[in-house]
Amino acid sequence: MTATRPEKSALVGRYVRLDPYTPADLPALWRALGHPEVFAGGYGGGPEGLPADEAAYAEWAPRYFPHERGITFVVRVASGPHTGEVVGASSMADFDEAKESAHIGWTAYDPRVWGTQVNVEAKLLMLGLLFDHGFGRVKLQADAINERSRAAIQKIGASFEGITRRDQRRADGSWRDAAIFSVLVDEWPEVRAGLERRLEDWGERPVLYRSVPSA
């Protein structure tokens, strides 16, 4: 099958809804992601990459998101008491139709939904979209020192491929190594089943915010 780039359209699940990014989403994204703990693990270049305020974020985020060369999704709660509220963002980009490869990344969530069904269903929807469009390999990666993100990627069912050394510069000027993972189309049925089993454990319970300790 020849891979084709997906159109920019919404992906709707039981727990979350992924809408293509628009500039109107920036205030809500700042409220969800403008926290030191979000940037601590390497998102946005690491701790030094955290914008100073909402205005600085509004300038930074459109440059960071690969929405022009890819698709950036704003993640919203789809049901329950927080319906419609923005809780994160994730993107797909680096499309290579000839090699049938793509990259899911630039992902961050409000700390109040860490460990919930949000990332599980978001990845289920995004991986499904890419494999349905003929892609054969989807890359995911994290800063090599970010154990929390690496564990989350492995829990999705992605296979660890290795470390790309001196992959990109952090906001503080240091160089990060990248831990590279991937899911292949032949592995997708098993990975999909695993994600679906994890969501079954949540049943009909909607996304509920977790308490986050004060700094």
UniProtKB/TrEMBL annotation:
Signal peptide extent: none
N-acetyltransferase domain sequence ranges: 17-158
Molecular function per GO: acyltransferase activity, transferring groups other than amino-acyl groups
Assigned keywords, A-Z: Transferase
Keyword Iron-sulfur: no
InterPro entries: Acyl_CoA_acyltransferase, GNAT_dom
Coiled-coil stretches noted in the UniProt entry, renumbered to this chain: none
Gene3D superfamilies: 3.40.630.30
Annotated PANTHER family: BLL6696 PROTEIN (PTHR43610), N-ACETYLTRANSFERASE DOMAIN-CONTAINING PROTEIN (PTHR43610:SF1)
Protein name: N-acetyltransferase
